[in-house]
């Protein structure tokens, strides 16, 4: 008998065949390129800055409110010098606050509601445009987005100082977060207390805010940064479909049985599939991570490890799914059934703090969480051991499951 | 005596409660073609699967080149070639790439894939993707794949099933060449003419059991009848007379008919393998 061919030579031959089969399938290549291009283009279109300014509309203009209040304030004992200081105060230059002043509260509510557009000219003048009028957009003007505004009533200050009941309307777009509405309500109350000359009946304690972790005030995470881990993760996930096809086609067309009556063992076949799948997913994940700036001098080794864990995890799942279905539709069903729940933890990334315990039990949770922490919060190896161990445990389960299911399937062909 | 290349002793296999192969024994010598003749579901493919390591027999011994073929035995699989009933080829690869790939699994450094494809008449289209091939071309490629490693033992499962005469002839020619080279060939078929033409011996398999096994000639002699059919002109029509040669006076009667001015033709009435199979099992080969 001739000397048996080495296992390494058999696996290498199988890998060359995998590469050939992958590159020959126009659908795989098209989907792979489409995914890569689409995610990178989408990433580039995401906003790369965060607008931390609160745009607040008021009506009538503050100057009018102060002018109306001048008599009442003088009667309260406010000196002419203090009134002059009030005149000079320019809330519009307050950091983090953009004040948009409307003469008419109905105009303000129409802008917030979206029936009118507000534009600010180069000279600072506010211009309104009726959307139904067909008027052209004002030249050289910038659009002003207003979503919340305060309508002060006439004689606001006079009534306040006379301890008469005053009602202030706050107009808010439906999409404004409750926190912003609460903040505007707080502003109105504070103004009221201040003008009425009544301080809060408590001694306000000195406060010191201690930020745990990286203080990102003034350096908020942009949407692009938030989506970066999700994009890399989605590329890994999408690769699952290609790998499922590579496995299922061998099972459904029974080419695997032809391979297994040669010196190739089933372990060689499984090793080649696992290596090829992992390399494909890892390679694409790496490419996208490089394109979206997922690596830096501090995190590259940890990021590479996380990418490898993710690639292996999805490969293990692909082996299982590829062997599970009896036909292409069945495999598509299983693939969808697997991938949809696996996406859930990525939403927890977009909305930090929302990961419920059941979400944390999903195998992909540690992968996406590690990506976020590594890329966006500078997590180190020391910070990541528990999540790495958790991911490795899930990886072992999925990979072992995938190999077991595929082995059983092949044995029954 | 030459050691058998294939040796099956009492091999059995069941799919759940269904007993597909019920303890069969046979041997195939190097250079010999054994035709496994039987209808669909008789146990032919299951027998091949046991001998090639795809299935492990529930009982009995299967030896290939003297080595127990039970399970995954790479040193045995390095010396065998298998042509499956299903055309399990890589469709997105060319014929040459398919053969090169399988040759690499056998560790063959410079495989003569072009020569192999020339033998089955696919040389002109060896760089075309298999997905563009007809059924007959794919089957010829399957056969070429089965002998790419110059195997000592060839398992051919219905290699000409449903093929056109040209493809069938090319495959039969190749099988003869492989047997002349010294390969032991186990050929399963339900085509009695193919079995008769190619096989040195024929085994009838039915319901998982071998019901008869011998050379085709001996089977015909054993189970067939010796007779001739004489056709004579009679008026405007034709009259047929069947003469049993073993009966008394048949020689004189045959001589009389042969000298008749109305004689048209004389044919031997040899039994076909299918006749014998029906006689032995009560069912036809196409069943």
Describe this structure in words.
The complex is a heterodimer of chains A (413) and B (287). Chain A has 413 residues and is α/β, with parallel strands linked by helices. Chain A has helices spanning 7-24, 26-45, 62-75, 80-88, 105-113, 156-161, 178-196, 223-252, 255-260, 266-291, 300-324, 328-350, 357-360, 365-376, 381-411; strands at residues 54-59, 97-101, 116-120, 126-130, 142-144, 148-151, 169-172. Chain A has 15 helices and 7 strands. A 4-stranded mixed beta sheet of chain A has the order 2-1-6-7, with helices on both faces. A 3-stranded antiparallel beta sheet of chain A has the order 4-3-5, covered by helices on one side. In chain A, strand 3 (116-120) and strand 4 (126-130) form a beta hairpin. In chain A, helix 3 (62-75) runs antiparallel to helix 4 (80-88) and helix 8 runs antiparallel to helix 14 (365-376). Chain A is elongated and about 105 Å long. Chain B is an alpha/beta fold. Chain B has helices at 44-51, 74-77, 95-105, 113-119, 135-146, 165-181, 192-198, 216-223, 250-258, 273-281; strands spanning 6-15, 18-28, 33-37, 59-64, 67-68, 80-83, 153-157, 184-189, 201-206, 209-214, 227-234, 237-244, 263-268. Chain B is 32% helix and 29% strand. Chain B is globular and about 70 Å long. Chains A and B meet through helix 1 and helix 9 of A and helix 2 and helix 3 of B.
Low-confidence parts of chain B lasting 5 or more residues at pLDDT below 50? none
Largest sheet of chain A: 4 strands, mixed
Q: Write the H/E string of chain B, N to C.
A: EEEHEEHEHHHEHEHEEHEEHEH
Q: Give the structural class of chain A.
A: alpha/beta
Given the helix and strand composition of chain B, which structural class is it? alpha/beta
Helix coverage percent of residues of chain A?
A: 55-70%
Rg of chain A (CA only): 31 Å
Percentage of residues in helical conformation of chain B? 25-40%
Overall 3D geometry of chain A?
Answer: elongated
What is the count of helical runs of chain A? 15
Radius of gyration of chain B: 22 Å
Beta-strand content of chain A: 5-15%
Q: How many helical stretches of chain B?
A: 10
Cα-to-Cα separation, first versus last residue of chain A: 28 Å
Q: Largest beta sheet of chain B: what is the strand line-up?
A: 6-7-8-3-9-10
Strand order of the largest sheet of chain A: 2-1-6-7
The averaged pLDDT of chain A comes out at: 82
Order of helix and strand elements from N to C terminus of chain A: HHEHHEHEEEEHEHHHHHHHHH
Q: How many strands in all of chain B?
A: 13
């Amino acid at each position: 008998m001739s000397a048996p061919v080495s296992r390494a030579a058999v696996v290498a031959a199988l890998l060359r065949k995998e590469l050939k089969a992958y590159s020959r399938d126009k659908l795989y290549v098209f989907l792979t390129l489409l995914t890569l291009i689409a995610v990178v283009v989408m990433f580039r279109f995401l906003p790369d800055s965060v607008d931390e300014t609160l745009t607040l509309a008021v009506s009538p203009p503050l100057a009018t409110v102060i002018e109306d209040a001048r008599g009442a304030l003088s009667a309260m004992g406010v000196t002419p010098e203090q009134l002059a200081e009030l005149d000079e105060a320019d809330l519009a230059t307050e950091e983090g606050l953009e004040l948009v002043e409307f003469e008419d509260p109905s105009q303000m509510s129409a802008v917030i509601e979206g029936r009118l557009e507000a534009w600010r000219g180069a000279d600072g003048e506010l211009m309104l445009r009726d959307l139904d009028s067909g008027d052209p957009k004002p030249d050289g003007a910038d659009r002003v987005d207003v979503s919340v505004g305060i309508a002060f009533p006439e004689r606001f200050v006079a009534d306040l100082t006379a301890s008469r009941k005053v009602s202030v309307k706050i107009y808010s777009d439906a999409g404004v977060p409750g926190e912003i509405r609460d903040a505007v309500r707080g502003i109105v109350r504070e103004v009221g207390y201040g003008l009425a000359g009544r301080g809060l009946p408590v001694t306000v304690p000195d406060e010191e805010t201690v930020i745990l972790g990286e203080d990102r005030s003034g350096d908020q995470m942009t949407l692009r940064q938030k989506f970066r881990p999700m994009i890399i993760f989605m590329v890994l996930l999408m690769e699952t479909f290609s790998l499922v096809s590579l496995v299922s086609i061998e099972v459904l067309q029974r080419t695997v049985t032809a391979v297994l009556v040669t010196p190739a063992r089933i372990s060689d076949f499984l090793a080649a599939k696992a290596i090829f799948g992992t390399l494909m997913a890892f390679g694409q994940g790496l490419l996208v991570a490089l394109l979206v700036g997922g690596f830096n001098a501090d995190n590259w080794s940890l990021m590479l490890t996380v990418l490898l864990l993710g690639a292996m995890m999805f490969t293990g799942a692909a082996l299982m799914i590829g062997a599970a279905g009896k036909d292409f539709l069945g495999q598509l069903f299983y693939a969808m059934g697997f991938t949809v729940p696996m996406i859930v933890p990525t939403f927890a990334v977009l909305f930090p703090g929302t990961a419920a315990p059941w979400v944390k039990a999903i195998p992909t949770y540690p992968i996406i969480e590690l990506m976020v922490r590594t890329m966006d919060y500078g997590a180190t190896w020391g910070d990541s051991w528990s999540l790495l161990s958790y991911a490795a445990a899930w990886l072992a389960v999925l990979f072992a499951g995938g190999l077991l299911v595929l082995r059983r399937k092949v044995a029954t062909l | 005596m030459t050691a058998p290349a294939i040796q099956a002793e009492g091999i059995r296999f069941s799919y759940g409660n269904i007993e597909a192969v019920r303890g069969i024994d046979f041997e195939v010598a190097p250079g010999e073609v054994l035709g496994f003749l039987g209808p669909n579901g008789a146990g032919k493919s299951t027998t091949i699967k046991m001998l090639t390591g795809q299935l492990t027999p529930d009982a009995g011994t299967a030896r290939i080149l003297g080595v127990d073929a039970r399970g995954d035995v790479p040193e045995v699989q390095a010396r065998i070639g298998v042509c499956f009933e299903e055309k399990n080829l890589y469709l997105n690869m060319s014929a040459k790439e398919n053969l090169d790939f399988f040759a690499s699994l056998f560790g063959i450094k410079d495989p003569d894939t072009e020569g192999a494809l020339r033998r089955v008449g696919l040389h002109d289209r060896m760089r075309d993707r298999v997905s563009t091939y007809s059924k007959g071309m794919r089957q010829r490629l399957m056969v070429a794949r089965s002998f790419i490693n110059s195997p000592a033992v060839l398992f051919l499962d219905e290699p000409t099933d449903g093929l056109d005469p040209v493809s069938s002839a090319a495959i039969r020619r190749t099988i003869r060449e492989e047997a002349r080279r010294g390969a032991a060939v186990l050929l399963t078929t339900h085509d009695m003419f193919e079995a008769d033409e190619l096989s040195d011996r024929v085994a009838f398999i039915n319901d998982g059991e071998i019901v008869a096994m011998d050379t085709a000639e001996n089977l015909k002699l054993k189970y067939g009848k010796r007779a001739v059919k004489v056709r004579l002109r009679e008026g405007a029509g034709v009259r047929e007379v069947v003469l049993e040669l073993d009966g008394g006076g048949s020689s004189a009667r045959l001589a009389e008919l042969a000298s008749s001015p109305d004689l048209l033709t004389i044919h031997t009435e040899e039994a076909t393998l299918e006749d014998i199979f029906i006689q032995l099992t009560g069912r036809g080969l196409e069943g």
